[in-house]
Amino acid sequence: MILYKYLSFNSGKKLIENGRIGFTTAEHFNDPFELRAVNLNFETNPKMNNISEGAFRNRCNGAYAILSLTRQPLNALMWSHYGDSHRGMVVGIDIDEAGLNCEDMNLIPAKYGEIIYTATKPTKKLSAPAFKDRLRYFHFLSK
């Protein structure tokens, strides 16, 4: 399956020249709701009561790298937001060739990575919004 990455022209040029794509740590996302859906139950979990939820989230946000892809190469909203205001490029990536379906290397393999975006934190299942085809893949970071 081919998935797509919207990029600025310079980032796309670098990807094509060196065959590498950058993953982003969650601490560098601009969305305040990123990775907030997880309920950690700090109040009731005895293993968690010695650390603060904020400290735990900060540690996790720097421990994982995320790749955002989409099924849609022609989405005007995605072009505007992620394609450098329509001045960038979109690159197709074969997720099997790139190893993004490998369960040993990915915390969430591509075949399981669909995320639905909303303007507010959902309290129930919502219908798919404009970003419904955007996918994210997580990798563990190690030193």
Automatic annotation (TrEMBL):
Pfam families: DUF2971 (PF11185). It comes from the Bacteria. This is DUF2971 domain-containing protein. It comes from Thiosulfatimonas sediminis.
